[in-house]
Amino acid sequence: MPKVSVVITAHNYGKYLKQCLESTLNQNYDDYEVIVVNDGSTDNTTEVLQEYENRVKIINLPGLGLAAACNRGIAATSGEYIIRLDADDFFDENILLIEADYLDDHQNVDLVYPDYYLVNEKGEIIEHVKQMKVGEELKLLYRNPLAAGAMFRKKKFKELGGYIEKPGYTEDYDFWIRFATKYKVANINLPLMYYRKHGKSMSSDHRWKTGAIRHVKEEFVKTKLSDMLKKIKILAIIPARAESRIDGGKLALRSLNGKPLIAYTIEEALKCRLLNRVVVSTEDEEIAEVAKGYGAEVPFFRPKELSAEGVSVELVALHILDRFKEKEKYVPDIIAILHVVSPLKKEYHITEAINTMLIFNVDTVISATNNNSFHWRPGPHGLSPLFEKRLLKHEREILYEENGAIYVVKREVLEKTMNVIGKSVAHIEMLPSESIHVDSEFDFWMAEQILKRELKLRSQEG
Fold first, then answer.
1. Whether residue 238 sits in one domain with residue 120
2. 228-249 burial, b for 16+ CB within 10 Å, e for fewer?
3. Helix (H) or strand (E) holding 442
4. What is the pLDDT of residue 389?
5. Is 379 a residue whose pLDDT tops 90?
6. What is the extent of the structural domain holding 455?
7. E-state strands within 94-177
8. DSSP-assigned letters across all residues of 214-279
9. Helix (H, G, I), strand (E, B) or coil at 188
10. Which of 32, 54, 201, 245 is 20 to 30 A from 387 (CA-CA)?
11. Backbone φ and ψ of 37, nearest 5°
């Protein structure tokens, strides 16, 4: 029986498959087998595999999807250690030797993963990617390291129950979040594989990826943290003072595509099953009546001294908490502050923010937008670049811009520090089209165009 089993998943990557197989079969390590799962390929994948049928084991599937292909391939392995590879990527000749020796020498580690080279379609190196060390540098698994190239103990994979086979599910993030919260993982700071970035790669669809990660978090909380969820109380606070930020009227009541601005936040909050109560904080009777009309609570008015411009949202939230404790003995565990000036946030964003807090046990979760534009800062001679050299987007560290839509904070942190931002902060990612913050007529117009487009798409689908 071999020590290591390499599982290659292939679906219509025939033009890359030969390089992938050659890199696998020319390792500086002898004790391994190679299993290729051809999952319904319609290109020349079958023809390429015919050249290697005496050197690898081939499993043909009718197109079940990546998770199922991985599960079927791993079920057919004989090795103690498993390492995955996608057919469009390829290995360094020493990856099996180095990672297998590491697991042999570190019995307390159940998964080891390397750094990698990002390559273009031709296989030319674009960048050396140094992965974060999960559990050390990276305490919160908001994105997973590459699944390809990671070697793990097969018995631990079986204990987890394998990959979850669901349509539209990101099996890699699910696997990592379940594995890393239960077992010890380690990083080898060497680039031992080559990850090909091209237009057809599954990870290129950012909207799909953020939605899939959101779904994984929801399933994790349902299956692993359901008992905790039954015991905690989560309060949503929607601050809505009678400000006239744009046209002189009350911003919260301004009509946006036929509804008052505040209605969008209330409606999405009420859809969120994790919230126990949805409360609007305002000093204005008209805003209060509209808020009640859309289903929110307005149990008391905000004092005038807390309604002036520049008053922090923390003081507003603490006022609500004090009154609830005094009047109803109601003490929530988690506070979700939802701002009306971000009308494009959805119930699933609120749910993901709460789920993120429950999974990673952080002080605060904020909503943010990926922003990898080239940044400058004031310097002695004008502007200085934030980065030492002008890099392409994929070569930079990921930057996130706080979008002001959602802040989820533990009540005890808010009361102790009088700040919604605690020591440990996680985030959820919202797309730029979901992150419009209404501060001007242009923002209002943009939000209206996006909402009109959403309605048009829904009518076409329905």
1. no
2. eeeeeebbbbbbbbbeeeeeee
3. helix 441-461
4. 60
5. no
6. 224-377+394-461
7. 111-119, 125-129, 151-153
8. HHHHHHHHHHHSHHHHHH--EEEEEE-----SSSSS-GGGSEETTEEHHHHHHHHHHH-TT-SEEE
9. strand
10. 201
11. -105, 110
Residue 214 lies in a domain: no
* 90 shares a domain with 16: yes
Q: What share of the chain is helix, strand, coil (3-state, %, to 5)?
A: 40, 25, 40
Average pLDDT for 89-98: 98
Instruction: List pLDDT tens digits, range 423-434.
Output: 999 999 999 999
Q: What is the 3-state secondary structure (H, E, C) of 304-368?
A: HHHCCCCCCHHHHHHHHHHHHHHHHCCCCCEEEEECCCCCCCCHHHHHHHHHHHHHHCCCEEEEE
Q: List all residues 6 or more positions away from 321 whose beta carbon is below 8 Å from its beta carbon.
A: 331, 332, 335, 411, 414, 415
d(CA 361, CA 345): 23
Q: Tokens for 17? A: 């498959």
459 to each of 45, 433, 449, 454, how far by Cα in Å?
40, 20, 15, 9
Exposure of 387 in the CB half-sphere (CA atoms within 13 A):
14
pLDDT for residue 388: 65
pLDDT digits (tens, 9 = 90+) for 257-280: 999 999 999 999 999 999 999 999
Of the pLDDT bands very low, low, confident and very high (cuts 50, 70, 90), residue 172 is confident
Comparing 99-103, 222-226, 329-333, the range with the smallest average pLDDT is 222-226
Q: Which two tokens stand for residue 161?
A: 């129950």
383 within domain boundaries: no
Give the pLDDT confidence score for residue 462 in this predicted structure: 64
| Number of domains the chain is built from | 2
List the structure tokens of 191.
Answer: 């680039």
Structure tokens at 349: 């964003």
Q: Which long-range contacts (CB under 8 A, 24 or more apart) does 371-377 make?
A: 371/399, 371/400, 371/401, 372/396, 372/398, 372/399, 375/399
Contact (Cβ atoms closer than 8 angstroms) between residue 164 and residue 60: no
